[in-house]
């Protein structure tokens, strides 16, 4: 039969059952209205006979049961009113036992029994024991489960509990517990027995049906949890052992998982804490297929919340040694369940670590112990590659960072790096980024070389190629983001003590130098600028700082920087190396270290000569060299002349004439430094500017030959502005006559050029603006105005 056919048949059988209940209920209502007890019992028994069916699934049977349950509520109200039916409750209890079929008989017996207990004509204990024993007569799993569920429902408010109106003698609570436990035991047996019904081919369907009925069984544990008289002593000595005995002995995966979860959820947290050893002792005895990781995780979550809710309970956790018991239990489970997936074991350790961080945050030894246990578990595999498992490992490693908001604390955990090493290369890098983000977010300063060593070992996946990976395989944007994060991190390592800071710099250098040609351009600059920060604190200091470590002197640091830049220039990245050489030269100048500054300038010129080949890069480099040389103040006359000569020579050898012109007139500033002790060589300034004019004229002629027009006068106007600058600064070689002659030259050249282009328009505007500046200086008065008086515009 097809699935659709079975569903249709089941719907038909359900409809027939509901129709039968409604039919017999109609006549039962008539009998109740007529106060006819005999007829009421007759039709109620016929109505309840509809529950004897075996054709319905648990879901459909539940619908049928609820129809009958609603009718039984009305029948119970009738039984309570003895004046209506004229029979004592004791006689009524005997009378309903004459029903022909056992199932209707027991439903009626439970209904009358509820009224019997309420009447208090017999001890609640006796009636409940009688009912729970009588229900043994129904052994069909589904019918028996619903019958006992009905018994639980009608008796839950009539248990002989402390403070209850049905309280009996001194053992009253024990009687209530015995009744609930007996009913629970029998219901669990019926529930487990369901798995053996029907052919093996429908096992999956049968397990689904069993899952739908689990709450009927769990309701008993819920009732147990609500009995006021069940104190810790009784729970520890009676309730928990008997429940666990039933859980372990049933040897059913579904039942064991659900009931263990029920125990954790329905009983108080305080009871769990005090009976932790008993509860955990049952875990290794469960079936290997039981999802024990979820059970233990929920237990630890409840205990964590319990600890977080009240700080006064924390001593209890220490008293019962909760961490040790949980840790040992998890270890036993991992050892015994050899088929447990690796993700399951890691999940357990994540839960244990979360528990530890919430309950014992100050015990770093506990945290490290959990990490160590995880390492031991992961050591069976070379690398964790399962996606779910890697997520759990990341969660494990992230937990201490989130709790302490301080990577320095995590760096003290000896097993933290070992867990990182268990990750595959991709996840290792993700975790490294998480660590860096934590440092940035919390603005954490790493202040010792030892901690820097551990930190860079943790993030080694970002600073060098791990086994089996290559930079070429990485996405370009991701790679840049990673390296920029490492660069930001380098700025976060700092110590006020020069000696320790130098050790930190050496440690960082050791790690980043293994990064390869694509990483060094990102990581070397921040290292060098960190060193500059140290150099500035040691400015002009000669000799060693008092201490036992490496000498923290500017010379020592510059030697380190020289080696670092050498490595950068060899990868090759000459433009960056040249820029850093110039930065080092300026820093050395600030420290009054002329030989060091000269050496870095020499290195920069060598890089320019041998490595910088692109014409645009040469132009940029030339301007950088000129600007840096102009700012250097420490050089002696001889060294300065040597470097200045080099700069002017290379400027005149650039590929394009306009670039030559601009570089040469920029060199004029090397001979006129505008400060108190600066160089002021007017003649050489004039030579540079005249040389620039010749080159500009040559450039204009080349344009004229190649394009048929003389080209713009932009270069001439730029040189004019240089003339005006040095004229104002008081260079005696720059005269008003020279400026006048240059003005006339530019005017003549502009008149001879009849073409109109975007470039010529721009140069015309530039010249007009320069003329307005000259006029403004003439008109504003004062000494400067007198200097400009002889210039005609």
* DSSP helical segment count: 40
Which structural category do the helix and sheet elements fall into? Answer: mainly alpha
Q: What is the overall silhouette? A: elongated
What is the number of beta strands?
Answer: 0
Low-confidence stretches: 543-548
Rounded to the nearest angstrom, the distance between the terminal CA atoms is: 110 Å
* Helix percentage range: over 70%
- Mean pLDDT over all positions: 88
- How does the major sheet shape up? none
Measured by DSSP, the beta-strand proportion falls in under 5%
Rounded to an integer, what's the Rg over CA atoms?
46 Å
Protein name: Vacuolar protein sorting-associated protein 35
Function: Plays a role in vesicular protein sorting.
GO cellular component, one term: late endosome
Membrane topology: Peripheral membrane protein
Describe this structure in words.
- There is one protein chain.
- The protein is mainly α.
- It has 40 helices and no strands.
- The longest helix has 31 residues.
- About 1% of the residues have low confidence.
- Pfam families: Vps35.
List the helices and strands and how they pair.
Blueprint: H1 3-33, H2 37-48, H3 58-80, H4 82-85, H5 89-95, H6 102-119, H7 124-134, H8 141-155, H9 172-193, H10 203-212, H11 214-226, H12 232-250, H13 253-266, H14 269-274, H15 276-282, H16 292-309, H17 314-319, H18 322-336, H19 342-359, H20 364-378, H21 387-404, H22 407-411, H23 416-421, H24 425-442, H25 449-458, H26 460-463, H27 476-490, H28 498-512, H29 520-537, H30 554-569, H31 574-590, H32 594-610, H33 615-631, H34 637-651, H35 657-667, H36 682-707, H37 714-728, H38 736-752, H39 758-779, H40 783-788
